[in-house]
Design brief:
Elements: E1 2-3, E2 16-21, H1 27-42, H2 48-56, H3 60-68, E3 72-79, E4 85-92, E5 98-104, H4 113-127, E6 132-138, H5 142-147, E7 151-159, E8 169-178
Parallel strand pairs: 5-6
Antiparallel strand pairs: 1-2, 2-3, 3-4, 4-5, 6-8, 7-8
The protein binds coenzyme A (COA).
Coenzyme A binds next to helix 1, strand 5, helix 4, strand 6 and helix 5.
Length: about 180
């Protein structure tokens, strides 16, 4: 899959090359973009311990495994800078369809890339005849999901570590969109 980006918004023109499906060789780059995006945006809302637990909850090996399987589809935004990624999205398509990742490199945020990655993920869902998308959003991304048409279902707590420590408990918001 290569999603057409012939008409990028003016602000994207110099930074975004194309969208494509992710594959196992992307594992390290996805992990890096995820960590940079989480640390840059989470620093105002979460403690260092929560951020560390969150970052550690997914490593290159788990990305490589997911990228080689069929349960999660990945859409990668390639940067105009060769070898760099602007961001990526992933959707778990088994069971209730769920946006599992949406990360934009801190230096590329605020240019419409997150909106377009999400649009590409929704288009993939529609192509698979999935008619809804759910997301467990962190508080720092809540305004984004509201801006792109998602409806708040409820708030809930999730433990970022396997140890059940209160220090790594964070509030998430469940958003939903009918596709
Ligand atoms: C959330 C994230 C993916 C948004 O990507 P982005 O490329 O910066 O967002 P866009 O430029 O496409 O913004 C789309 C809309 O959301 C709004 N928006 C985006 N981030 C926002 C924020 N933090 N606060 C308020 N509004 C925001 C924009 O104003 C824009 O609205 P508009 O089109 O009406 O002007 C990005 O900030 C990110 O990677 N965050 C860190 C990781 C994260 O929290 N991911 C979500 C996990 S649930």
């Amino acid at each position: 899959m290569t999603i057409d980006v012939r008409e990028p918004a003016e602000s994207q023109e110099s930074t975004l090359r194309r969208f494509r499906k992710g594959s196992p060789p992307d594992a390290d780059a996805l992990c890096e973009v995820r960590e940079l995006a989480l640390r840059a945006t989470g620093v105002r809302t979460y403690t260092p311990r929560q951020l560390d637990a969150w970052v550690r909850s997914r490593d290159p090996a788990s990305f490589a495994s997911a990228l080689s399987g069929d349960d999660e589809i990945f859409i990668v935004a390639e940067d105009a800078d060769p070898g760099r990624l602007s961001g990526f999205a992933s959707v778990i398509i088994r069971g209730r369809p769920h946006l599992w990742s949406l990360y934009v490199h801190p230096s590329r945020q605020g240019r419409g890339i997150g909106r377009r990655l999400l649009g590409a993920a929704e288009a993939e869902c529609r192509a698979l005849r999935l008619n809804q998308l759910n997301v467990a959003a962190v508080l720092t991304a809540a305004t984004f999901y509201e801006a792109v048409g998602y409806r708040l279902v409820c708030e809930f707590y999730a433990d970022l570590s396997s140890g059940g420590s209160e220090a790594t408990l964070i509030t998430l918001k469940h958003y939903f969109k009918r596709l």
